[in-house]
Amino acid sequence: MNERQRERLLDEVNRPSGTIGRKIPEKISIQGTTVDLNAFVFECKRLETVPEGERDRIEEVKRQLKRERLERKHRIERDDISYAEGEQLVESIRGIDRAYNALGGLDSPSIGEQMRRKKLDDARELMTLVRLGR
To answer: What is the pLDDT of residue 117?
Structure first.
């Protein structure tokens, strides 16, 4: 792979919109260990709230994903690989990013829940103003 191709692949890795429409990989090898990533993320997303014990486990998986992403990016930057191998690495990095983003958003409420809370807060504020106006 030439330097121009390498730079193009690295640009793709750094593009923030690269995960849009991507699926979380079924399985991924992280430092020699195969992780059922899609199943793990699915199970975590099913939880209403993340229990303290699970939170530690999720944080550990997120650290491993971050480390693996960095290693794969370094392979694109430094290793003597073919362009096709580089493209495969970019795709795998996008899958890692997608899983990382999904795990990162577990504790934050959904858009619908945020809107519901905002409406409740607005209604409380309005009721307070009405009571004060009497």
So the answer is: 76
